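Hi V.,

You were right to ask for the full record rather than a summary. Here it is.
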Amino acid sequence: MSFTENTGNQCDLYVFDFDYTIIEENSDTCFYNLFENGKLPKELADVEDENQWTAFMNKVLTYIKQKVGVTSQQLKAELEKCHLIGGMKELFEKIKSKGSDIIIVSDANSNFIKWIVEKNEISHLFTAIYTNPCVIENDQLIVKRFYESHECTYCTGTPNMCKSKIIREHLAKYPGKYENIHYFGDGSNDFCPMFHLKDSNSTGYVRSGFALEKRIKNYFNNPNAEPFKCKMVYWRQAYDFLDQI
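Predicted structure:
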């Protein structure tokens, strides 16, 4: 089901993934240098593909706290080293200056995102941030799933998150507010929300060189593939299209 909005309303909605879309790093792995030898221990690496990602992250966070002794403040310090993609802050400021809304929809977690956006002084630019909740108990981070399950066949790789469902729920909170929706992403789980953009007044911004570009290419290898309804822009830095916003 495509996102539907009434035409002629107040503003557009800009939706952003986080890792490799707003920042140059993967926030879930950027602190691995805190492990011995600066890499994931073998006992964790051996089970990485056997676990749903949120469950795996909790194994990582438990290990790094209980066996390495890394504190939440040490994790925070590492996350704060993440870099915004070139031109991203200017892009956010330009979007807001036009009266549009910006939201983040990410399979990272609330603490990691909070630490990074606050460090870069951009937290005030977002209308909402939708991500896996994270709490700190006894100085250890614990990540919870955004959804326990969903029924989307496009998002089987992320059973805890369908970004299209999240966007529809956001739209339901603000009925009639948005005229067009634009989506920025890089990963395979960004395919679903981009595919459901409604028409050529909406734009899908695909970061070049990442999994989303590959998934789109593979999708169109099927001669019967249904076309995307939105315009498509491929980019590497936000400076690439800043003048087009």
